[in-house]
Amino acid sequence: MSLVGKNIDAFCSRCGFTLAHVVLYEVGGAVQGVQCKTCGAQHRYRGARTGVSRDIAAERRRSREAPRPRPPVRPSDSRVWQQRSAAAPPDAVVWDYRLTERYETGDILNHPQFGRGFVEAATADRMEVIFREGRKTLAMNRQPTPGEPG
Ligand SMILES: [Zn+2]
């Protein structure tokens, strides 16, 4: 349903407040251009800079959508991942991650959930891997569970 022509709360940089605006146009279903009903200025829609009560509502919405918050990505880990990715030769061997395999420092993994990862440290049965979304400790070199092929 299009919002063009409808009223919407938006932050007006000229007025300096969140005020009623009229939607001028949308791109891909998202409101892009609005006109301030107070001063008449036309500008890009940046969303309503909301007050406290609305922020709480948004927070509640977010927590309902994501019941299990992930640990935050550490920028340093992400940078290491990018450096490793840039340094990896294009023909580098990428191993599919399997619990029963043994990996060594410097190996490149493909994890079904986390994607490409670089083994930073390894012990007998676990390793530290840098993924795009951060550093994770993964089990490896474990006995195959009975009934599992391979
Ligand atoms: Zn205005």
For the residues shown, what is the average pLDDT? 84
Instruction: Find the count of extended strands (DSSP E, 2+ residues).
Output: 9
- What is the string of helix and strand elements? EEEEHHEEEEE
- Give the termini separation: 53 Å
Question: How would you name the oligomeric state of the polypeptide chains in this document?
Answer: single chain
Shape: elongated
- Treating each run of at least 4 consecutive H or I residues as one helix, how many helices? 2
The helix/strand class is alpha+beta
Beta content: 35-45%
Largest sheet: 5 strands, mixed
Ligand inventory reads: zinc ion
What gyration radius follows from the Cα positions, in whole Å?
A: 25 Å
Query: Within the largest sheet, what's the order of strands?
Result: 5-6-7-8-9
Total count of domains: 2
Give the helix proportion (percent range). Answer: 10-25%
Poorly predicted spans: none
Task: Explain what this protein looks like in three dimensions.
This protein folds into 2 domains: 7-65, no CATH class; 75-139, no CATH class. The longest helix has 14 residues, at 52-65. The strands form 2 sheets. The chain has a 5-stranded mixed sheet. The chain has a 4-stranded antiparallel sheet with strand order 1-2-3-4, with no helix packed on it. The radius of gyration is 25 Å and the shape is elongated. The chain has 2 helices and 9 strands, in the order E-E-E-E-H-H-E-E-E-E-E. The chain has 150 residues and is an alpha+beta fold. Helices cover 18% and strands 36% of the residues. It binds zinc ion (ZN). Residues 12, 14-15, 19, 36, 38-39, 41 line the site of zinc ion (ZN). Zinc ion (ZN) is lined by residues 12, 14-15, 19, 36, 38-39, 41.
